[in-house]
């Protein structure tokens, strides 16, 4: 059932009905441009989107896949549901347009809803192109299980779930363009073995020439990704039960795979327009005002449309189209025209900087062609000049001259006589001075269509810090490659008025206090609920994004003495389990140190059978995860298990992983199992700014991976233990820093509590220790926590003791739920993929 986001508007003024089919980046950007031109006074705006969300930034999905961002990040959701209500836009999300009657001027949706329009904008975007391959689809036309595109949140969620399901997943990415390499990079950071298969002879052949492709290939292979070019995939190989097992090639060879990601290109989504009788070639044919051919009130914008025989797959042309269309239909400039886009690309591909524009190489005998090629350093540069005009440029690795070349490509600056100086600082503008010399209409942020002039205007309107400018213009909120230049332009435009962004040190944006200041204010004023904090400390009132970090902080300060309010907690924290993409939950009972018993194993098996739990999986933290538990069954599952929570959810102390230690291992130097159990017993479930993963290993062979945990302990002999902090082995790889070497398990436990409490009180919301430790500095941490230079250890010890004494197993909520709806079924109204039974 679709979600209806309808504003309440009592205005009686007759307005024209504007319907936008498509709630993606092009459709929503067009509506933003219309509203900025007074469109809310002219139109009742209705949008139809087939995904159950507001408008989100598809460019950010690669960051989500790699673990550099999450689906909760503000930068991902461009227009959350509240935006539509606040701007008087009716949104039917989770619904899809099934038919257009051009003569009756109606749109019919899959839900049966019929919507009248006076003006219609089609912004249906594009779909992943799936080449014709044997075994790609099931008999009913659905993609085979384990085959994904890479276009939506659902695609990304599916890949993440499969990538983290076990430790030995292999993936093949079909297509070595930008999207394919981003998918490969993201999966590799999740620990997946990845091969990229590309039928052309070199990677990113649409943007790079053969030498540029070779340099990029070297960089990709250095990441541990296999690259296979000149290979045409003809089949998806599957086992007898339908499970993906690999891909087959035209030459008879094959590659094994558990997951296949198809990024072989996109195709304009034109079926709705075709069925309506609109003119279709490669895309929906439009004129210079984005009006569909032979139509008076139907327009198209974005990747679905074809303008002057061109279709575009980059966002910059979409923004230009949106501006023209908004000018036309609002009357702001009824003569506005779109004349096509000269494409320049500046982005980061799998961590490698790339800039490209125009042609890839010389096309005539008299074309000038200058190249710099250094495979060892991963640098490639080239320019193509014709009739003293730059008609093409390519930079890979070092893109410091991209700003100058962009202006030269747009014929805004003359070319130097020494063409080589276009690639190096030899008389042309340097990277350092490029911000001042850029023309105002040069696009700085390709992802969100922000020009230098937009940034300068933003500064002139009163925004004098980089974060303010980024928030208002969205510059730097896509791939992120433009952030340094955005900073340079803000500094240039603001001059002496440039302000340091004090809010960067605030715990939450709506309260102008650092975390220690906020803790002090909450204690002094005895504020025990999120609403009280907003009322007393937030100058502009409530901010929804601050609720979760504030509720976490209140639990750190007051323990069970904080006042819980509806809506202040994420669903995981409300029901003490980890929500899955199908709306069910995973339950991980406590197994301290990874040690269990036959009785516990029997209980887990019995519970899984009783509640028809589809999957039991061993986790990376040496626990057993019961996946697919219904929300309403959670209290009964916990009761039947009779085991405490294992904390595989929320931002808290998670688990302590251990090796065998001296119990059985012939190399063991210390009793790691007993120490791990003691640490977990003492600090179980402590609230923290981000999750905490710990490990204790009985010798330097590091079988429990203690070197790369938030808090790791290693036995080194003679009763001594090394304590390492700030390690990571997820999306970021980092060996922990040595905090101290101690002589007893008791001292390990004491220092563990001191470190955790300092982290709880000083770290930013969602700041993992692998960022916190380098930010503070290991030497500073040693001085504060080990040497007690500032006399803080006594207070830290007292507060951690209070927190430990205040511990209550959250699964006891089964006896007295916090609210009538706490464990009421709340599965999504939309059908979502179920956890597979294996």
UniProtKB/TrEMBL annotation:
| EC class (word) | oxidoreductase
Membrane-spanning intervals of the chain: none
PROSITE patterns xrefs: NIR_SIR
User: Where in this chain does the record put each FAD/NAD(P)-binding domain?
Assistant: 17-309
- Obligatory cofactor(s): siroheme; [2Fe-2S] cluster; FAD; [4Fe-4S] cluster
Gene3D superfamilies, sorted: 3.30.390.30, 3.90.480.20, BFD-like [2Fe-2S]-binding domain, FAD/NAD(P)-binding domain, Sulfite Reductase Hemoprotein, domain 1
Pathway assignment = Nitrogen metabolism; nitrate reduction (assimilation)
Domain BFD-like [2Fe-2S]-binding, by residue range, is: 444-490
Question: What is the reaction catalyzed?
Answer: hydrogen sulfide + 6 oxidized [2Fe-2S]-[ferredoxin] + 3 H2O = sulfite + 6 reduced [2Fe-2S]-[ferredoxin] + 7 H(+)
**One Pfam family this chain carries?**
NIR_SIR
Which of UniProt's keywords are assigned here? 2Fe-2S, 4Fe-4S, FAD, Flavoprotein, Heme, Iron, Iron-sulfur, Metal-binding, Nitrate assimilation, Oxidoreductase, Thioether bond
Alphabetized GO MF terms: 2 iron, 2 sulfur cluster binding; 4 iron, 4 sulfur cluster binding; flavin adenine dinucleotide binding; heme binding; metal ion binding; NADP binding; nitrite reductase activity; sulfite reductase (ferredoxin) activity
Superkingdom of source: Bacteria
**Which residue numbers delimit the Nitrite/sulphite reductase 4Fe-4S domain?**
650-787
* EC number, UniProt record: 1.8.7.1
For the ligand (siroheme), the binding residues are 703
Q: Which residues bind [4Fe-4S] cluster?
A: 659, 665, 699, 703
| Domain (NADH-rubredoxin oxidoreductase C-terminal) ranges | 345-412
Q: Which InterPro entries match?
A: BFD-like_2Fe2S-bd_dom, BFD-like_2Fe2S-bd_dom_sf, FAD/NAD-bd_sf, FAD/NAD-binding_dom, FAD/NAD-linked_Rdtase_dimer_sf, NasD-like, NiRdtase/SiRdtase_haem-b_fer, Nit/Sulf_reduc_fer-like_dom_sf
What role does this protein play?
A: Catalyzes the reduction of sulfite to sulfide, a step in the biosynthesis of sulfur-containing amino acids and cofactors.
Q: Which family does it belong to?
A: Belongs to the nitrite and sulfite reductase 4Fe-4S domain family.
Identify this protein by name: assimilatory sulfite reductase (ferredoxin)
Gene designation: nirB
